[in-house]
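Journal club side-thread
Mid-discussion, someone asked how the predicted structure for our own chain would compare to the paper's figures. Pasting it here so we can look after the session.
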Amino acid sequence: MSEPGTRARAAAAQLASGGADGLRVAEAATAAWHQVYAALTPIVGTRGVEALFKRSLSLTREAHACLGDVGDPSPAHDHAASLRAVLARQAGADAAAAHAALLQIFIDLLSALIGESLTARLLHPLLDQPSSGDAAQDTP
């Protein structure tokens, strides 16, 4: 597991431990994937990001069957909206685990291709921000 992947998993775990429900996790996941696309599309192109997402989704579905309902990414299909819908239907902890695993595998694949250092630099805004810290504040 790459260091950036570990940080991504920790951010998602923070959401789950903060008592976030599936919808809040889904919203955080959608925001994260929009950041991933924004950071990587200028470098590897939309098709490159889609290929990495598709492979990550394929590998993650083995452990998180709920992700089987996420459509394959393509220019005609918004995977973030599909992922959001799937995660919103899950319990908070399950949604966070699925999102964390998907993001971790994506980051690990990217790290294997371009190296951990470059991956960390490209995804710095995503990896260094707290993951929706207000989720923990909502619990009394």
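Post-session note: The longest helix spans residues 22-60.
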